[in-house]
Specification:
Two copies of one chain form a homodimer.
Chain A: H1 7-15, H2 17-26, E1 32-33, H3 34-41, H4 45-57, E2 61-66, E3 69-74, H5 77-93, H6 101-109, E4 111-113, E5 116-118, H7 120-131, E6 135-138, E7 141-144, H8 146-154, H9 159-164, E8 171-174, E9 181-184, H10 185-197, E10 201-203, E11 210-212, H11 214-222
Chain A binds a DNA duplex (30 and 30 nucleotides) through α4.
Chain lengths: ~250, ~250
DNA sequence: TTGATGTTTTGGCGAAGAGTGAAGCATTGT
DNA sequence: ACAATGCTTCACTCTTCGCCAAAACATCAA
C-alpha cells in the first residue's frame, strides 16, 4: 500500500482551483508572468506568487527570469500530457466547469496542447497520417515510416535534429475533446510551428484556442498525403513553402 | 480560463491522501469492501465511507452490493489509465511515497493495472507484438493486424466478442515504471486473464504486484510469435529461438 | 539617486473539510 | 425473534490552508 509514487501530493497540487487554472492557462504553451497568471486564475498577485512557488518547487513549472519579469511555463511535455489526460477524464466523468459555451466549441475545433495542436483538426491529421502509413506502431510507442520521414523532410522539417533530442519524435496524446489520439512529441511540436509560421492558423489572444482557416485546414491535412501524389488544391497559402528552412532548436 | 472540463474538482478528489490510497489499492483490479479500503488507506471506517461516497458520487467508482458487503471498484479502464498517468508523472517529477523498498521492485517487474498487466514483462510483450507486426497503428489509436488476430484466436481468445464491446480492443497505456507502453484495452485484459488461468503468473495477496514464473514469462512472450512457428501449449519451454522480426500483412 | 513597476514575503482572518465517536439501517446467523 | 456484523449517517471539534492587506524586495527608467 505504501508503494509507488506519491500520487496524492501531485494531485492535491493540481487540485486547488487556483493552481488548476494556472496550469490550464499554461497549457496554451506560452510562458506567463506571475501577474498574468494571477489574472488568469482570478486571484490576487500574492496568492498567485505563492501557488507558483509551490508548483515550481514540485518541479511542474520552470521559470525564466528576465529583468523584473518572471516567465513561468510548464516544465515539460509530460506534464502537459498528464494535465490533458486529467481533462479527458474530467470531461468524460461529466465534471464540466460551466456550460459548454461558444468558447469551448472553438477549443474543440483546434487548440494548443502545450506545444502541439489538439482538437478536431489535429485528430483528423493523425488519422490520415496513420491511414497513409506515415505513422506506424513501434516498440516504444509510435514511429515515423520512411515515407513519412521523406514527406516531412520535403516540408523542411529536420527530422534528424528532432531525433537527436531526448524527447520522443512521435507520441499519441489522447485528446480530451475528441476521444481519439493526436500527434504529440517533437514532430507534433514542429508541425504546430509550421502551421503558425505559414499562417494556416493563428492563436487567439489569451487562450489555448486556435483559429484554423479553411485553407489552413486543407494544407494541414495535405501534410498527410504522400509527396508524390500531392495535388495543389484550393489552398493557396502554402505556395511559399520552399523558403522556410524550419531549423529550430 | 473558464473553458474546458473541471480538472480541479477531479484532481482535488484524487489529491486527498486517503482517497489516493484507496484508488491506488483499487488499481490492483479487484473490488474491495469499505472496511478493506479503510484498512488500506489507514483510516477509520466512517472516514473511508465518506471518501468512498465522494468518489462514487463523482463517478470514479462503482459499487456492487452483495448482502451486507459493498464491493467498490474503479468505474472503468479510463479512470485507471488516468491514475496510471498521474503515477507516471509523480514518479518522474520525483515524488516518491517512501523509500523504494523491495515491494516496489516486484511491482516494477509485473503488476496489474486495473485489469491488464503492466511493468517490465508487459512492456516487453508489447514491444514484441509490435516488432512482429501484430499490433499496428490505427486512425483511432492501436489495432490488431490479421496475423495478430489469428494468433490470439489460436489461443482461444474470442476477438469478435471483444470487438463487440464499446471498449477499444487495443490501447497503448504508458507504464509508470518503465516509460514505455504496455497493452491495455479489452485484449490486454483478455491476455491478463489468460496468464492467470494458465498459471503463468499469480497475484500477490493484497497488492498490485504479480509474480511471474520464468516459464510464465517465456509463455507470455511466446504470444507475440506468429502462430505458424508454434503449437498452442500451456507452458512453452522452447520459446527462445533466433528471431526474425518478420513483417506480416 | 529617486520614483515607479513587478514580484515576493509576512501576519492575521476566515472558511472549508477531515477526523472521531455515537447512533441508525440493513443483512446474516443462531 | 434476538444478537452480531458491516456500513452509513449525523453532530461536533479541530486543524489546515487559502485569501487579502500591507510591507519589503528587486529591477528598470529618468
Amino acid at each position: 500500500m505504501k508503494n509507488g509514487p506519491d500520487i496524492a501530493a501531485l494531485a492535491s497540487l493540481i487540485g486547488d482551483p487556483a493552481r488548476a487554472n494556472i496550469l490550464a492557462a499554461l497549457m496554451g504553451g506560452k510562458a506567463l508572468t506571475a501577474g498574468e497568471c494571477a489574472a488568469e486564475a482570478g486571484i490576487s498577485a500574492p496568492a498567485a506568487s505563492g501557488h507558483l512557488a509551490k508548483l515550481l518547487d514540485a518541479g511542474l513549472l520552470v521559470v525564466l527570469v528576465q529583468g523584473r519579469h518572471r516567465y513561468y511555463n510548464l516544465a515539460g511535455p509530460d506534464i502537459a500530457e498528464a494535465v490533458e489526460t486529467l481533462m479527458g477524464l474530467a470531461a468524460r466523468v461529466g465534471l464540466r466547469r460551466t456550460r459548454p459555451g461558444p468558447r469551448e466549441a472553438a477549443m474543440r475545433k483546434a487548440r494548443f496542447c502545450y506545444d502541439h495542436l489538439a482538437g478536431d483538426a489535429a485528430t483528423a491529421l493523425f488519422a490520415r497520417l496513420v491511414d497513409n502509413g506515415m505513422l506506424v506502431a513501434q516498440a516504444d510507442g509510435l514511429g515515423l515510416s520512411p515515407g513519412g520521414r521523406l514527406r516531412f523532410l520535403a516540408e523542411g522539417i529536420d527530422i534528424a535534429a528532432l531525433e537527436a533530442k531526448p524527447r520522443p519524435l512521435c507520441r499519441a496524446c489522447l485528446d480530451w475533446s475528441e476521444r481519439r489520439p493526436h500527434l504529440a512529441g517533437s514532430l507534433g511540436a514542429a508541425i504546430a510551428r509550421l502551421a503558425i509560421e505559414r499562417g494556416w492558423c493563428r492563436r487567439e489572444a489569451a487562450s489555448r484556442a486556435v483559429h484554423v482557416s479553411p485553407d489552413g485546414e486543407r494544407a494541414l491535412l495535405a501534410l498527410a498525403e504522400p509527396a508524390s501524389d500531392r495535388t495543389p488544391d484550393a489552398g493557396g497559402q502554402d505556395a511559399d513553402q520552399s523558403k522556410h528552412p524550419a531549423r529550430r532548436a
